[in-house]
Amino acid sequence: MRDITPSPADRFVDDDRLDRVRDHISDANLDGFLAFSPSNSYYLSGCYAGMYSRPVIALVTHEESVFVGPRLEERKADRTAWTNRALLYEDSDSPFDVLAKAVPDDVDLLGYDAYNARPEWVSELERRVEPSFVDASEQFLSLRIVKTDWELDKIRRAQDLANAGVEAMFENIRSGVPEIEAVEAVQQAYYQTYLDEHDEFDIGTANELGQYGFASVLSGPHALEPHSLSTARQIESGDSVVGIALPSVQGYVCEEERTFLGGDVGPAVEEGMEALVDIREQVIDRVGPGESVAELDAWTFKEIENAGFADKVQHRTGHGEGITIHEDPALNAQSSGELKPGMVISVEPGLYFHERGNALRHSDTLIVTEDGAERITRTNADVLIMN
Questions:
Q1: Helix, strand, or coil (residue 90)
Q2: Cβ pair 67, 77 in contact under 8 A
Q3: Which of 151, 198, 305, 347 has its C-alpha lying 20 to 30 A from 121's C-alpha?
């Protein structure tokens, strides 16, 4: 086992993070937060392990902060973790014995991310330490839902990559081009923008999809599978093509999606796209602090219903973004809560014409401000026709 004091450069350190975490620990009447999941352990430590097949945790108490992971992550922990300590175990060590060394003797009650934690990891650590574990999943959600200035900076940097990727879509999505060829151009745009503007940070820290600088171009019926990867399918006249840009910088994602219409998609699809563009812009204008996430979604659906396309809706109006692609707040009629300054959301109502093999969806990323919202993705979001 190695016990080191990380030495990250200032640019990797979120100066507001530990104070915010400790305020939440106090509010919850706990002695500390213990994170087992990739996103939450990253949130508490600043170190995102490359793989999570071995146990990885982060712990913050009122006095201590610790990252624990395999020795393979030693250099990354030293370079990026803002914790007081990093404990790195060898494959010859018992990882849970090492994890137990991270837990101070003077704590009694630790909150952990039960929604996301692997139960076997929790039980192995729980039987080795004295403190009681309680479910603090809601506290983790509350912590992450409003971003710090440091987090917003990383999302804005990812936005630069997303904008460049979508601009590449405008140039490369056309009839006869394989989806995967268009994606190659998007990825190249990410990389060039990263090299030109943000190379002091890490690009494409692993996200929930397990991708690195994720992008996809989905055409025709394939676009009815919104979370699929691009294939060799050639884009055809009559397709609607959904281009998805989801790059990340230092572990923070920015989403930008555009739909391109090619050839004769038919009047129903054209009318659906026109209605969707208009309704989505109205939704974006409504976003601001104090707005109910449920009411935003319900209003959006009602407008789509009034336009005659209610049967083409199959998902919510949008979702939060940050360390992962999908996080709170959800713009969903089944959700509760209001938007607050510092939240980051997508606005992406969609229409799906299964009988015709067409999907329609633009998506933009917004930062909720004190008096409204800032739309940080900025490519053309009108009715888009393929070249």
A1: coil
A2: yes
A3: 151
**Listed residue (156, 243, 227) closest to 193, CA to CA:** 156
Q: In what order do the strands lie in the sheet with 256-261?
A: 214-219, 240-246, 256-261, 384-385
- C-alpha separations of 213 from 158, 168, 244, 326, 356 in Å: 9, 14, 11, 15, 31
Q: How many CA atoms lie within 13 A of 152 on its CB side?
A: 18
Total length of the chain: 387
- pLDDT by residue (tens digit) across 63-94? 999 999 999 999 999 999 999 999 999 999 99
Asked whether the predicted pLDDT for residue 172 surpasses 80, the reply is yes
Domain CATH code at residue 98: 3.40.350.10
- Tell me which of 206 and 101 has the higher pLDDT: 101
How does DSSP classify residue 142? H
**With a threshold of 0.70, does the pTM exceed it?**
yes
Lookup result for tokens 């745009």: 189
Q: Which stretches of 28-105 are DSSP H helices?
A: 38-45, 74-80, 95-101
d(CA 68, CA 278): 49
Q: Point out the domain boundary residue: 92, 110, 144.
A: 144
By DSSP bridging, strand 109-112 and strand 132-135 are parallel
DSSP 3-state helix, strand, coil percentages of the chain (rounded to 5)? 35, 25, 40
* Number of independent structural domains in the chain: 2
- Same domain as 213, residue 359: yes
Closest CA to 245 of 204, 274, 273, 280: 204
How far apart are alpha carbons 122 and 133 in whole angstroms?
9
Domain end residue (candidates: 101, 121, 144): 144
Range of the domain at 39: 2-144
Q: Counting Cβ atoms within 10 Å, is residue 11 exposed (0-12), middle (13-18) or buried (19+)? A: exposed
Tokens of 68: 């624990």
Rounded CA-CA distance 237/224 in Å is 17
Same domain, 77 and 162: no
